[in-house]
Amino acid sequence: NIHRVNKNAVRYTLPLNEKNCNSKNLSEVGLFMKNIKGTAEDQPLLVAYRQFPSIQKTEFFTLVFLWTLQF
Fold it and tell me: Of 17, 32, 34, 42, which has the fewest Cβ atoms less than 10 A away?
């Protein structure tokens, strides 16, 4: 989900629900832009990255990551 916060900011929401990443230990998340430079061939770029204490994902909860990018 992508939401424009204001004229200079966009918020990305990434929910990992009961069907995603179960039985995985998660300790980092990253946000890639597919083709930020607008080249003929996609050149993904890591624009946000965060490490956190390890969380074991299970089907009993949804883990939601929110990214707000300001430009």
Answer: 34
pLDDT given for residue 71 in this prediction: 86
The whole-model pTM stands at 0.78
With beta carbons less than 8 A apart as the criterion, state whether 64 and 13 touch: yes
Give me the DSSP letters along 4-68: EEETTEEEEEEEE-TTSSTTEEEEEEEEEES-TT--SS---EEEEEEEEEEEEE-TT--EEEEEE
Residue 21, both tokens? 């990443």
Is residue 12 within 8 Å of 4, Cβ to Cβ? Answer: no
